[in-house]
Amino acid sequence: MKRVWPFLIMGACLSSCYVFKAYKYRNFELKDVEKLGAVPLQASTQPFVFAYDTLNHTSLQQYLDSNLTRSHTYAFLVIRNDTILYERYFGAITESTKLPSFSVAKSVVSTLVGIALQEGLIQSLHDPITRYLPYLRERDNDFDLVTIQHVLDMRSGVRSSENYFNPFSNVLQMGFASNVSKPASKVKLGQMPGQFEYKSVNTQLLAMILEKVTGKKLQDYVVEKLWAPLGMEHAATWNSDKEQTVRAFCCINAAARDYAKFGRLFLKKGAWQGRQVVPEDWVFRSVNADTMSRYGGYRNQWWSDSRKEYFKDSLAAVAFANQHTSAEMKTYRMKNSNQTGYRVDYHTGEFHAEGILGQYVYVNPAKNLVIVRLGHNWSHPKMYAQRFIYNLGQALR
């Protein structure tokens, strides 16, 4: 198969050279960020700076240092009450290094949708996407059934391969094609909308809608509505095609502290230093525990993790479930026993933006806490990155 690969790629490149790029960067490295086309996101002229207090948190530092050293982490931040409790960069990484976030960008794009909705540029999330992208109707009349909300929730029914290891997949075509809008505009439906199926092309469609209604490039809109108001300290980039159209479904490259500010925005219910940057109602409808529970842990391109508690006694299980409005009680067969136990699944109100290779912006409103992890494929002997971060957030006192 290895001998066949070069000929397959050469043949594909006669019409689509993105395949060569996808194969070239199949083992992504941090240095590759600077080699890919990108547009700048200028730093704010009035930067916001977190307070700093790491001296009084030595036990936290020791725990994280011992767990992160071999985890392929580039940057890790713990910020509580607007104060940095832990900040560490590994290798040659510094506080100003532009670090890739991959699909964390999806949560940024959805936030821009919330702002455009408030501004009246988008009339309703129940609008069919063909109202803004009418050419999709020419491909399939059933696109009239797909709403903006369907696209936000990855329930559009579009057919697109989401294989990051196959250079011929649709997601990598969008990632490396010279015109990212072309493959997105040619998308087809695979099924009727309603069922969750993670497809990055959904976010690119949202970006196309935003550029249509705002009359602006998305990079200009994000600087105006988020980057400048949030006081981003360092210049960032957003990977783009030859037309300077951003690859909206991924690929914002920014400093770790600036990602933390995006998390803080949602921690503060969309407010920033006395100004409502994002509608509070949008934040609530996107990430509160009941919403996340109702939509299986994914809403408006944000994620949440459910927790499980086990009980032998049904009364104890019911009492616990009554404390959590998002709780769902289930029965299970206890190990090495014929007895029935009770499991309560519930969402705690924590949520996160997530990118492939283990990029996380985690928010815990109950503890006024933001955690940022950026790096390569997470490596830990006992737990996945998501569980590590959620456990850390719940353990902090």
Q: Regions with pLDDT < 50 over 5+ consecutive residues?
A: 4-15
Choose one word for the global shape: globular
Structural class: alpha+beta
Radius of gyration: 22 Å
Largest sheet composition: 6 strands, mixed
Q: Report strand %.
A: 15-25%
Integer average pLDDT = 92
Terminal CA distance: 54 Å
How many beta-strand runs? 19
| Estimated helix fraction | 25-40%
Reading side by side through the largest sheet, how are the strands ordered?
Answer: 2-4-3-19-18-17
What's the tally of helices? 15
Give your account of this protein's structure.
- The protein is built from 15 helices and 19 strands.
- The model is unreliable at 4-15 (pLDDT under 50).
- The chain is globular, with a radius of gyration of 22 Å.
- The longest helix has 15 residues, at 104-118.
- The protein is α+β, with helices and mostly antiparallel strands.
- Helix 4 (104-118) runs parallel beside helix 9 (201-214) and helix 4 (104-118) packs across helix 10 (218-227).
- The termini are far apart.
- It has a six-stranded mixed β-sheet with strand order 2-4-3-19-18-17, with helices on both faces. A four-stranded antiparallel β-sheet has the order 1-8-9-5, covered by helices on one side.
- Strand 15 (328-333) and strand 16 (340-347) form a beta hairpin.
- The protein has helices at 4-13, 18-24, 58-68, 104-118, 135-139, 148-152, 170-176, 181-185, 201-214, 218-227, 256-267, 280-287, 289-294, 314-321, 385-395; strands spanning 38-41, 51-52, 73-80, 83-89, 99-100, 158-159, 188-189, 236-239, 252-254, 271-272, 275-276, 298-299, 302-303, 306-311, 328-333, 340-347, 351-355, 359-364, 369-375.
